[in-house]
User: Fold these one by one.
Assistant:
Number 1:
Amino acid sequence: MDANEHGHVIEVTGLRRVYGGGFEAVRGIGFTVRRGEIFALLGTNGAGKTSTVELLEGLAPPTAGRIRVLGHDPYTERAAVRPRTGVMLQEGGFPSELTVAETARMWAGCVSGARPVAEVLDLVGLGAKTGTRVKQLSGGQRRRLDLAMALLGSPEVLFLDEPTTGLDAEGRRDTWELVRALRDSGTTVLLTTHYLEEAENLADRLAIMHEGRIAATGTPDEVTAAQPSRISFELPEGYFAGDLPPLAGLGVSGHDIDGRTVRLRTRELQRTATGLLMWAASAEVELRRLDVRPASLEEAFLGIARRAAEEAGGGSAADLSTKECVR
């Protein structure tokens, strides 16, 4: 059976992974991925993402729990799963002296029903590099080659581990378009990424891991909805914070004042912004440097990491920087 009655091609239940020294990298997680869906697995460094993906790819057995990929155990039934999946590792490790075309032909010989090499290389933008040796490729071009090899077998399920690392902005956008096209054609994609913008743009659903557990899951909008939106502006000349309408009545859940700059937090962005602008129009004043923005996935990610660190006694919110969480 390829999928259950709900159309899930990946099912994870009670998954645990404990290493030899007793370290528990994955602590009883569960999630599902539907056919033709892009699912992003995010997390702080050491959250358990790589350990989880290795189990999904069938590279090791779980310590406990259950995994099904296309209806099969990816470890004990590897022969039934592997020909129907594609895997893009963080680094392919191809022989440096081979050309791009030679590498692709070698890889195609290991794949059941491989697509034409030229077609796949064109697909990832390496059609003009067929005679170039792997060692002469840039970091971004090597990532394109890694992706090409993962696509040679026309996989039904595609695992992408940091797919756009090393790519420039144009290459990243091209890869996003290719991944969307694969999804639209019915391919199920599970990706890990440290680029939160990438997850926000690509993922139909996502899960955020922290210390071996899933801290949040849902669509990007559902995950970010748990964080307040923000409005900031500069008080008009001659006005003070006390001259503003009652903030609670505008749906404001918190605020900060720094000199003449006011920063509001709200879970009712439209209501707050509308009330604020109506007050400014009535008072015939201009709200300079007005900035209205909904919560981002990065804010949700950092909020989860900070809360988890504080609950574990690992430090205050100020101890976690964006770089530490998303690098």
Number 2:
Amino acid sequence: MSPRASSDRCRAARLRSFAVSYWPVVVPVVAAVALALVWGRSLSGWQVGLAGCALAGAVLAAVHHAEVIAHRVGEPFGSLVLALAVTVIEVALIVTLMADGGDKSATLARDTVFAALMITCNGIVGLCLLVGALRRRVAVFNAEGTGAAFGAVATLAGLSLVLPTFTTTAPGPRFSPAQLVFAALAALILYGLFVATQTVRHRDYFLPVTAEGEVIDTDDHAEPPSARAALSSLGLLFVALVAVVGLAKSVSPAIESAVAAAGLPASVVGVVIALLVLLPESIAAVRAARGDRVQTSLNLGLGSAMASIGLTIPAVAVASLWLNGPLVLGLGATHMVLLALTVAVGTLTVIPGRATPLQGGVHLSLLAAYIVLAVSP
């Protein structure tokens, strides 16, 4: 081999090493810059394409940094960090859109929360159970922790999204001010109890388990990152998630135009945006399931659902004090049927503490039904 060819090969190797080492730092910054350039502007076709590429890069960077943090703090804290970070930013986006939307945003919080519920409880959970079961024939998880999380999600969904349809104090599927205060307080208290149960009193219920039911409390594959690296990842995770949500909002007009041009209902836009916002958690959950840590993936899915209700309802309750227009939280008949099926199927899935590909397929079929009915009500 000539000296020049050897030099070129060494240079290429150094470039690859640099890209592998620094892309998690560079990509969130580039995505944030792209967000600053496109925010509040009408985008052309090629600009939408560039924003979409930045969005995809931000999603991958968010997953990487979430895994670094999870490796440092351990489970279930790592899952909680990602779920909480995504939900806080998502709530801020919802309140901002409600402030700008007037009466037409009356159902925005309800539609967003329900979309998040269906995506997490059926999409993420179903896909992770399917991946875990195909890998080990049976996906094994801790029934105590998963059942507690799913029960809390079902309770908050019923209190916040079903009851308003049947109350009579306020007209329509709405809460009266006193009822809304109760729903907000119940959501906050139950979410606080869930976090305390998951991280303090019964942390072992939310740790991955082996096929024999033994709890896995350590990661033997690699040394955990340093505190400095974890803090850096925490900051970059926040930047990446801001970019994900902001870029999703920036490309939403193009999505709305495409949906309208296709003759689809406006609710499809909410489904697409929810899918984009939850993409980091979905990828992280599937990777955990592929690594034979199904419990970690369920923590991500159900934790995101819990955070979505537990933080969104109190936030919109406070925002309704100064926002004009009604706040509609009650679901329609079709969505209540889907929610009831999700609760029933989820309960039967959780009780044994193990699942076959069939259970994963059933959950995914419910998500498919939700998407089909969103496209064709």
